[in-house]
Amino acid sequence: MSESIGEMILPGTYIDVRAEGLIGVSGIATGNVGIVGTANRGPLNQVVVLGSYSEALDTFGSYDRWPDKVLDQPKALSLTRTLEQLFTGGASSVYAVRVANVAGQLASTTWSVTAVVAAVDTEVFKLSAKTPGTWANAVVATLTTSLGQPATLTLVLGRRKEEFTGATAAELASAVNDGSALVDASLPAEAVAGLKPDKIQNPTTVPSDGEPATDTQYKAGLDLLADQPVNIVVVAGTDAKSSAGVVIGHLEGTENDGKERIAVLGVSSNEVAKIISDDASKVGSGRVVLVAPGISASDAARAGERNTSVVLPASYAAAVVAGRLSALAPHVSLTNKDVAVDSLSVDYTRAQQKLLLLNRTLVLQKNLGIRVLKGNSTDVGPFRQISVRRIVDYAKAGVRIGSNPYIGRLNNARVRAALKATLDGFLSGMVVDEMLTAYTLEVLATRQEEINGIARVVMTLKPTFSIDFVKVIMNLE
Q1: What Cα–Cα distance (Å) separates residue 13 from each residue in 2, 5, 19, 38?
Q2: To the nearest whole percent, how much of the chain has pLDDT over 70?
Q3: Which residues of the chain register pLDDT less than 50?
Q4: For domain 32-102+211-375, is the CATH number 3.40.50.11780?
Q5: Beta strands 110-117 and 199-204: pairing type?
Q6: What are the Cα distances from residue 127, in Å, to 59, 137, 173, 185, 218?
Q7: E strands of 336-420, at which residues?
Q8: How much is the pLDDT for 253?
Q9: pLDDT reported for residue 242
Q10: Which of these, 360, 300, 309, 361, lies nearest to 64 by C-alpha position?
Q11: Which of 3.20.20.60, 3.40.190.10, 3.10.450.50, 2.60.40.4290 would CATH assign to domain 110-204?
């Protein structure tokens, strides 16, 4: 039944329900992390939502062994290793994109399933790994047959084992497609669909997962995240020196589209002078956080070796910080917060810490564990504190959510009063939650603005700042 009176022709009672007074602001996501990186498994150039590190392993596979030589480290697969640090830091909702730098299409491992026709092995269908990459090279595929029994296909990858049976090629291929998490089977041609498979052979292997990703691949991956509900962005395995331009372009584009977010990047070196000249000089934005130094972490790919600890560059420290930031409410500062890091690759002196802070770098330090020295962005203006930037983004998101239901409604005093009540309820909630200390709000329109369909919202917000310094004056008597 309509809640708005369109016409009155037949005698009766007509009711117009005006629900503007019930419009409120629904929940706002503040801790969703978007990440782009390279892996040996998983869908390419697609957004995958993850809720845990175990899901990341199932989707993108294990990472490779961290290279001992510094020159080889940029070639290491970055996505899963960065996801490990993200979830260790506290992330709970991650939007991940696997990218690859390959000349053509990244291939998938394949196998040929055959049957004997006129004493010749003839392919009846083909198996292909679910996703491209080197991961499926490790899949062991066997086919067993016995007289009077269906053929049994067995697939083994690590601890995972899958078995499928079928009396004919069509039955076996159908069973694989219905139940396998590792491979897909092509549909057998009609001429061979009724044959019983007896061999699996001619496996093709994938030589590599591509070269180290470049700005081209990172930009393509970030473009896929542009319309996702992401609040924090991480580019796996790269640093501010290499990717600042692409990341800042992404941040500006998403801000213009009303999907504001913050990027957390690592520095390219642990040397203070190089950080200042190569990294800090490239960024000056309230939407970019620059993290130093690198970290030490356990390398799962070295399990069983004498020493499993490796030194990772600051891009992985940035992932831990991003995970920690995602777990905090928007108004809670990173300053003095602990992060889940074993140790740091460098312990900066007090003088070095001072230089880095003056050059807008977020520094990790040893202090009852590993802590953030000061939660600052690279901005030189009003958004130096990360929390202030996040508070303002939260307010912008709430105002959009609260205002959108009024689009298309009457532009009169009653509806504008309802809009003001909606926004007032949202902003007063921010005061109660201590995101704001105070605010003022007006919703108005001149006659000309009413004619043009404009309702003007004017607000003044006073964000809550965190304590960075405690100044003590002691008077002795």
Answers
A1: 13, 10, 19, 65
A2: 99
A3: 1
A4: yes
A5: antiparallel
A6: 19, 13, 9, 5, 31
A7: 343-344, 362-366, 370-372
A8: 95
A9: 92
A10: 300
A11: 2.60.40.4290
